[in-house]
Design brief:
Shape: elongated
Strand content: 5-15%
Radius of gyration: 24 Å
Strand order of the largest sheet: 2-1-4-3
Largest sheet: 4 strands, mixed
Structural class: alpha+beta
Number of strands: 6
Length: 305
């Protein structure tokens, strides 16, 4: 048996005083968390961050506790949690609700009816299909390395999609300026059927490519584990995060088509945000796989960054 002393990492934790737990030598950190949850039912496993005392790095759930014998541990209360899958579904449903309101009921928003141009019809289809694809991938494709995230984060994450891709873009693109009779549309490339079909081709290419990279990432992670293999193949031969790259390509199509203020805003925001995520994952890959990781790969943009 191994005896572990666990102290609260901060004031206000559901664990009020040091706790001693006896577990078998082959027990895992997850089993220790489960025992804490038995003694403190409100302190569920997902709320606990277990680490060595004085160390901020969390112990992995699958780590054996035999090496921790005689060492003091601390547990941090992460607060109420929500599953990543649920958070993603809430994030992506926003644009699916907001865009139809502006598209089908323009008189309520702009005070007048809007005869939709072909451009507005295409953009509406692109947005709806994009976020419907994301919802389906969340349910049937994605495997998450972390089961939960802090509940309050759902508001921050949702605001990014609901406001930027939902409200701001919908207000801008479905207004009379982009209607079928607007001078901004009539006689321009935005009203050219061939241009719209070419744009659709690029958009479909980006969406299918994004989906393929998600399938590759799914297959790298066995069900029910946090194990991650080295990604190879389509897209990954050039960058560490081709899913982000193809995401940017898809939204760039809408920027080129509409030239709207909102589209410029969210493409800049998307590039900045995804660049940070991509660089972090790129560095984690290099640290995890060392010399095995291809040196020529960039983080997000082929041959550049």
């Amino acid at each position: 048996m191994v005896s572990l002393t666990i102290s609260p990492a901060s004031k206000g934790s559901l664990l009020k005083s040091p706790l001693t737990i006896d577990v078998s030598a082959d027990a895992t950190v997850l089993e220790v968390k489960e025992q804490i949850a038995v003694k403190y039912p409100k302190f569920g496993v997902s709320r606990q961050k277990l680490s060595l005392k004085g160390d901020k790095k969390a112990l992995k759930d699958e780590e054996k506790v035999d090496s921790l014998s005689g060492r003091d541990l601390q547990v941090k209360d992460l607060g109420p949690q929500m599953s990543w899958r649920t958070v993603f579904m809430i994030e992506y449903v926003g644009p699916l609700i907001i865009h139809p309101i502006f598209y089908f009921f323009p008189k309520l928003i702009y005070g007048k009816d809007v005869e939709h141009s072909a451009l507005q019809n295409y953009v509406f289809a692109f947005v709806m299909l994009h976020f419907l694809k994301r919802e389906l991938e969340t349910v049937f494709v994605h495997r998450f390395s972390h089961g939960t995230m802090p509940f309050l984060f759902v508001f921050r994450n949702s605001a990014y999609y609901h406001i930027c891709y939902g409200l701001l873009f919908a207000i801008d693109i479905y207004r009379p300026k982009y209607s079928a009779t607007s001078p901004y549309i009539v006689g321009t490339y935005r009203d050219n059927e061939m241009v719209l079909w070419i744009a659709t081709g690029f958009w479909l290419y980006a969406q299918v490519s994004n989906f393929r990279t998600h399938i590759t990432l799914r297959n790298l992670r066995p069900p029910g584990t946090r194990v991650r293999g080295l990604p190879r193949g389509y897209g990954f031969n050039l960058v560490s995060c081709p899913n982000y790259f193809f995401e940017i390509v898809a939204w760039t199509v809408l920027v080129v088509l509409t030239q709207s203020i909102a589209s410029y805003f969210f493409i800049i925001l998307a590039i900045v945000t995804l660049s940070g995520w991509a660089l972090k994952r790129h560095n984690n890959y290099k640290k995890e796989f060392g010399k095995e990781y291809p040196r020529h790969r960039r983080a997000l943009f082929p041959f550049v960054f």
